[in-house]
Specification:
- The complex is a heterodimer of chains A (473) and B (394).
- With 473 residues, chain A is of the alpha/beta class.
- Chain A folds into 2 domains: 262 residues, 3-Layer(bba) Sandwich (FAD/NAD(P)-binding domain), CATH 3.50.50.60; 157 residues, Flavocytochrome C3, Chain A, domain 1, CATH 3.90.700.
- Chain A has 11 helices and 20 strands.
- A 6-stranded mixed beta sheet of chain A has the order 6-2-1-10-20-19, covered by helices on one side. In chain A, strands 11, 13, 14, 15, 16 and 17 form a 6-stranded mixed beta sheet that branches.
- In chain A, helix 1 packs parallel to helix 5 and helix 1 packs parallel to helix 11.
- The longest helix of chain A is centred in the last third of the chain and has 22 residues.
- Chain A is elongated, with a radius of gyration of 23 Å.
- In chain B, a hairpin with a 5-residue loop joins strand 1 and strand 2.
- Chain B has 2 domains: 103 residues, no CATH class; 272 residues, no CATH class.
- Chain B has a two-stranded antiparallel sheet.
- Chain B has 394 residues and is mainly alpha-helical.
- The two termini of chain B are 32 Å apart.
- Classes of the chains: A alpha/beta (473), B mainly alpha (394).
- At the A-B interface, helix 5 of A face helix 2 and helix 5 of B.
């Protein structure tokens, strides 16, 4: 049976593309590198979609207008974004949920511990793996053929047109192709190369943990950029990067390895020194910068230290912390220099103004700040003085990388600034067009859904020799 | 609570792979992961109950395990499910503890052991009960076939085979004991889980809510109303519907017996009853419903996903379903055999099934309804109070 549309990848963007192409009447083959039980790429670890809406919508409260969404994105990316593509994603996020529901995705009100995004983010019931399961079921019902354990090593192009893909020694032809095979975050060698060696002689990326799938090796990304000279975008060191529990597994630690107590205590590096304002803003607005902050510390590691007063005020961590009845004992247990640690903690405790203690409120920006301390702690600064004391070791956890293929509002892969007529890209492989740096919760799924749907519709139209229905892209 | 040294030793042994964690320890391990993730909060009552806790002690685990309906939603949606190294399988961990709670809270305690080989327990009970009635019939009447009773006519009333008072003297103590044993087990469970679920008394709104969840099986709806899982990651309402047929069929049969008893003693109107009488209508409707329900549940059970629930408990589940099926099927056969020569034989078979069912009620799968109702009630009480764990992000 001839294939109209070949989809390479098995996550959210790939599935959106496959579903759209199948709905348009194309015959679709989807190649997923992972075995069935590990399918779905990083999408299996996601939980929500950032959605524009002008009025309350089922699970979304109030309004989140286009302009506010755009300003949020502009702020977190520091301007490293494309306004037309970003606005396309934002608008698509306001209309895609009905389609998602048709394919079996169910939404729910925000989870406990995530009420801060009740206005902006729609949560998938059961999280991303439930979404992935629903999409695969729907795809199979629509006749999409799915092959697992089918990693594509390279593709054949002719004058910028897709001809065939190679899975091992097998050549698979199709009229059009959608690339949605993820970033390169699981490729340790490439990360090492991208981050290089620092002034201390360390290879920082060797100490990174990967929060998601082990299958995002970036094979096709590199192949397209280096061998086919596809137009690329983004910096290979830019990524969604979080400070996570240092004991997390090397891959697939997902959401539960986060450490949410940073803003309630202090964070010290291997030299037992503080290095950044732990109370700059609410943790959910800051967690995505701490991965890079920790990556810049010696040994790419740091320790979040809290006392008994903080327990119960943050999301419970997956692994128990190191516990001690005194601060010097905690320093010893954490393997930190006791003198330097006590110097840091004593300086910090003295800088917490006692007249502020009564104002402490971890649910608001309480302005309980340190005085005469560098770096300052802007909020929630209370002395760390109540036993038992807890320490959690942190490491950078990479969610996904931003280096990708340059594209436009048609999701076409571009060669020498010319769009390919039948090769399209979606998901992490092009998220860098919108996210040059930084992150805001749920935007990765918004990008994957918007561009996956565009890529699928365009690929089907190109294969079937039709015009794309107006208004889709 | 175990001392710190014991905990440390256990942790070391666990880390070295020397011992398997206890079922309660496994639930605590899994929930520590779930509590840091919380993606499943929309599915059922377990996860909102979990977020009210930072640690999971024995009584918490017993309560949560009985709150779990083994719907499978959280397993299929889990990013940490096998083959992930965290090996999170909430429904299985909960089922294993649940099985232990049935045995542990059973009264009298030594009979809790009957849960360990529950298939054997039910089989022996059935064989013994059948033998009892067959032997009794032969001893009383000399034959299991044809002419019955004092009138010598073919067919006739089953009180001609076994006098009414004899049946009452056999069933009343067995049924009374079953009720007592279940009540004692429930009392012990209740006193264990009440302190860890706020200790507050039950209110009328909480009772009404829990009753609603029991009677509609809310937590087999997947959180979205479209059903739970059976063979794979697809949703199905089949289990919920077949369970309804089973549960309401059982209740109708029970109501038929109760109405019959009242008719006998208060109205002086003994069985057999005509088809268009209340006891018979209830009994036939209940029997048919129970037969369809248990056929469906059995069929679904044979197709359950291998990771759902505890494999060691499948004999308990299947034998209970089979016993209910036999009870309803033999009851319907008895009705159809009325007036025929086969009546005495069917009567013995049906009475044997009913007796085995009653005798094993406190030591078989039936207990799940009692403990789950209690857990749902405690949850309805607990959820009305502010969450004792206050997260900054909220």
């Amino acid at each position: 049976m001839g294939t109209d549309v070949l989809v390479i990848g098995g996550g959210n963007a790939a599935l959106c593309a496959a579903l759209m192409a199948a709905e348009a009447g194309a015959s679709v083959l989807l190649l997923e590198a992972a075995p069935r039980e590990l399918r779905g790429g990083n999408s299996a670890h996601t939980r929500n979609l950032r959605c524009m809406h002008d009025a309350p919508q089922d699970v979304l409260v109030d309004a989140y207008p286009e302009e506010e969404y755009w300003q949020d994105l502009l702020k977190v990316t520091g301007g490293r974004t494309s306004e037309p593509l970003a606005r396309l994603v934002i608008r698509a996020s306001s209309t895609c949920r009905g389609w998602m529901q048709q394919h079996g995705v169910r939404f729910q009100p925000p989870l406990s511990g995530a009420l801060h995004v009740a206005r902006t983010n729609a949560f998938f019931m059961g999280g991303g793996k439930a979404l992935v399961n629903a999409y695969f079921r729907s795809a199979e019902r629509l006749g999409v053929r799915v092959r697992y354990q089918a990693p594509v090593q390279r593709i054949e192009l002719q004058d910028g047109r897709f001809v065939a893909a190679w899975v091992g020694g097998e050549r698979i032809t199709a009229k059009t192709c959608v690339l949605a095979a993820g970033g390169f975050e699981s490729n340790r060698e490439w990360l090492r190369e991208a981050w290089g060696r620092n002034e201390r002689g360390e290879w920082p990326a060797d100490n990174f943990l990967i929060r998601g799938t082990r299958f995002n090796q970036g094979t096709l990304l590199r192949h397209l950029i280096e061998e086919h000279r596809a137009d690329a975008i983004g910096d290979p060191t830019q990524a969604h990067m979080v400070a996570i529990d240092a004991r997390a597994p090397l891959y697939d630690g997902g959401i539960c390895t986060r450490i949410d107590c940073v803003s309630l205590g202090v964070v010290v590096n291997r030299e037992a020194r503080r290095f950044y304002d732990e109370g700059e803003d609410f943790w959910p607005k800051r967690y995505a910068i701490w991965g890079r902050l920790v990556a810049q510390q010696p040994g790419q590691t740091a320790w979040s230290v809290i006392d008994a007063k903080a327990v119960g005020r943050f999301m419970p961590p997956v692994f128990p912390g190191v516990v001690a009845d005194s601060l010097p004992e905690l320093a010893r247990r954490l393997g930190l220099d006791e003198t330097a640690f006590m110097q840091t903690l004593n300086d910090y405790n003295r800088a917490c103004r006692s007249d502020h203690a009564g104002h402490f409120d971890h649910t608001v920006l309480d302005d309980c700040r340190t005085e005469g301390l560098a770096p300052v702690k802007s909020h929630w600064a209370r002395p760390i003085d109540t036993a038992p004391f807890y320490g959690y070791a942190l490491r950078p956890g990479v969610t996904f990388t931003y280096l990708g293929l340059r594209t436009d509002e048609t999701a076409a892969v571009r060669f020498g600034d010319q769009p390919s007529a039948n090769l399209f890209v979606a998901g992490e492989m092009m998220a860098g067009n919108v996210l040059g740096q930084g992150y805001t919760a749920g935007v990765g799924m918004s990008i994957g859904t918007a561009f996956g749907r565009i890529a699928g519709a365009r690929a089907a139209a190109a294969a079937l020799g039709r015009e794309v229905r107006h208004g889709l892209a | 609570m175990a001392s710190l040294d014991v905990l440390v030793q256990e942790a070391r042994a666990l880390a070295d792979g020397q011992v398997m964690p206890s079922p309660e320890g496994e639930v605590a391990r899994v929930l520590q992961i779930c509590n840091a993730c919380r993606y499943c909060e929309g599915f059922c009552a377990i996860f909102p109950a979990m977020t009210r806790r930072l640690e999971f002690h024995r009584a918490d685990v017993h309560y949560l395990a009985n709150l779990c309906h083994n719907c499978g939603a959280c397993l299929h949606a889990c990013q940490y499910a096998p083959p992930h190294e965290f090996q999170v399988n909430v429904p299985r961990a909960m089922a294993e503890v649940r099985g232990r709670t049935y045995a542990e809270y059973a009264w009298p305690a030594p009979l809790g052991r009957l849960y360990q080989r529950n298939g054997l327990t039910l089989s022996v009970a059935l064989a013994a009960a059948l033998a009892l009635f067959l032997v009794l019939a032969v001893a009383l009447r000399g034959t299991l076939w044809g002419a019955t009773g004092t009138t010598g006519a073919v067919g006739g009333s089953f009180y001609d085979v076994f006098p009414h008072n004899l049946l009452v003297s056999l069933f009343a103590p067995v049924f009374g004991f079953a009720v007592l044993a279940l009540a004692m087990g429930l009392r012990r469970f209740w006193s264990d889980v009440t302190p860890v679920t706020s200790g507050q008394p039950v209110s009328a709104p909480a009772s009404a809510e829990a009753a609603g969840h029991v009677l509609t099986l809310t937590y087999l709806d997947g959180g979205h109303g479209e059903g739970c899982h059976n063979a794979d990651d697809a949703w199905t309402l089949a289990r919920r519907r077949f369970h309804h047929l089973t549960f309401y069929g059982f209740l109708l049969c029970f109501a038929a017996t109760a109405v019959g008893t009242l008719a006998h003693y208060l109205l002086g109107w003994p069985a057999p009853y005509p088809l268009w009488s209340l006891p018979k209508l209830l009994g036939v409707a209940g029997g048919v419903s129970l037969l369809i329900g248990t056929t469906g549940l059995g069929w679904l059970n044979l197709r359950r996903h291998p990771l759902h629930g505890a494999p060691a408990q499948r004999p308990m589940d299947r034998c209970f379903i089979a016993l209910l099926w036999l009870t309803s099927a033999s009851g319907l056969a008895l009705w159809l055999a009325a007036g025929s020569a086969a009546l005495p034989l069917w009567l013995c078979l049906h009475l044997g099934c009913v007796m085995a069912l009653f005798a094993t009620l406190p030591y078989g799968k039936f207990a799940h309804g009692i403990y789950r109702t209690a857990a749902l009630l405690r949850h309805a009480v607990e959820k009305r109070l502010p969450n004792p764990v206050g997260l900054g992000a909220d």
